[in-house]
Write a structure and sequence with these properties.
The chain is an alpha+beta fold. It contains 2 helices and 10 strands. The protein has one domain. The strands form 2 sheets. Strands 2, 3, 5, 6, 7 and 10 form a 6-stranded antiparallel beta sheet that branches. It has a 4-stranded mixed beta sheet with strand order 4-1-8-9, covered by helices on one side. It comes from Fibrobacter succinogenes (strain ATCC 19169 / S85).
Length: 160
């Protein structure tokens, strides 16, 4: 019984930690006088991901692109990032007790605007572009997650 209580407390702490790292996109002040990125991350189909958080490192920032509590293939992500070029440095995921970090062979990234956010889709699906401007996918996730900023007010990220 003592171990179950300890396990419950530990699980709650892990869940709260993973929640705390995401921006509250439903609040207008999240977008005020800050630079950053908001987008949809697409994980590979049939990917071992149930219950495991996935992250990318973009512009030196670790960004949760798939929260622990979802098994959705497409997930909204957001983060504050300094303006300028933000290199995609890595993608980290776990499967069971195995943790894998992938690093791109070629340099890829997005350009974060001087003022405000930009939007993009980042995809690790086979035969998909790494970065895209999938307007329907982005619009639907903005609506689903009740993003406080109008979809049209956030420009697409430039990529390289």
């Amino acid at each position: 019984m003592k171990y179950l209580k300890l396990l419950g407390i530990l699980s709650a702490c892990v869940l709260m930690t993973s929640c705390a790292q995401s921006l509250s996109v439903s609040k207008k002040e999240t977008f005020e006088q800050k630079s950053g990125i908001i987008g949809v991350f697409r994980q590979p189909v049939g990917f071992c991901s149930g219950g495991y958080q996935q992250q990318i490192k973009l512009g030196g920032e670790k960004i949760i692109v798939k929260p622990t509590w979802t098994s959705e293939q497409d997930n909204l992500f957001s983060a504050y990032i300094q303006p300028g070029n933000a290199d995609l440095e890595s993608y980290r995921y776990s499967c069971g007790f195995t943790e894998t970090t992938l690093k791109p062979i070629e340099k890829h990234g997005v350009v974060i605007p001087q003022n405000g956010f930009c939007k993009i889709v980042i995809s690790f699906l086979n035969n998909d572009e790494l970065f895209s401007k999938n307007e329907v996918l982005l619009f639907n996730h903005f609506k689903k997650e009740e993003v406080a900023k109008d979809f049209e007010e956030i420009p697409y990220c430039e990529t390289y």
